Amino acid sequence: MDFTLDKYRELLIALKESSLSFRLRHDVDLLPQNSLRTAKIESQLGLEATYYFRMVPESYDESIIKEIYSLKHEVGYHYESLTTCDGDVDAAYNDFCSNLEKLRQLAPIQSICMHGSPRSRWDSKDIWKKYDYRQLGITYEPYFDTDFSKTLYLTDTGRRWDGYHVSVRDKIPVFQEKWESEGLSFHTTDDIIKQLKNKDSLLITSGYALLITTHPQRWNPFGVQYIKELCMQSAKNIIKGYLIKKR
To answer: How far apart are the first and last CA of the chain?
Structure first.
């Protein structure tokens, strides 16, 4: 079964035992307690990751943020201010700064990452067409500060590893098509693990480092929450596919 916590641990072990350089990123969109579970698994394996929290009740949990930081993971800000401010760039910047200051009361924040908000007409990365996040002490925004000519981006968007086909914003234009043409497109977690364990595989010999994004609410022990997430995400993929066609 895919997208269980056991499968996530298996993926981490395969990554750790491979020869590849990798970075782990987590978007905490919902169910922050799930993020604490994955953070503990990573800590047990001696791995560090970055957890990006939204400033909404379904993501922002101060006790969990503090505990994840105490496990020596990085905490980042998963911003969506242009969406929440209805496209007003100046208001969005002020909202961003206010939220950043609040989050910095819990952990040092040097990394940020845009939340896709697929139903919104606004792309929150557009704040940085007018303002400069580096002036706020931010050193990394993955969509701007990753060299994708040297880094392969793998994301579980859509509860699948080739979900960029039904993703509104969590994808890397141009490079995505290049990676696919090179045979570096995967559907299941086992597809990735199999490549990681084969020293002659395309993934290992490609020369790419990896940037791996997961959404911890998708990774659950089998049970009610597992089935709920499976059904909800299947429905969302249909809706997102429709939104992409409209655009």
So the answer is: 34
Looking up residue 124, the CATH number of its domain turns out to be 3.20.20
E strand residue ranges, 109-172: 112-114, 151-155
Contact 126, 82 (CB under 8 A): yes
Distance CA 97, CA 231 (A): 36
Tally of domains in the chain? 1
Sheet hosting strand 112-114, strand order edge to edge: 112-114, 74-79, 50-53, 22-28, 209-214, 151-155
pTM (whole model) above 0.85: yes
Beta bridge partners of 152: 210
220-241 tens-digit pLDDT: 999 888 888 888 877 775 555 5
Q: Which residues contact 181 (CB under 8 A, 6 or more apart)?
A: none
Domain hosting 124: range is 5-246
Q: Is the Cβ–Cβ distance between 170 and 164 less than 8 Å?
A: yes
Tokens 């035992």 locate to 17
**Tokens (6 digits) for 144:** 């701007």
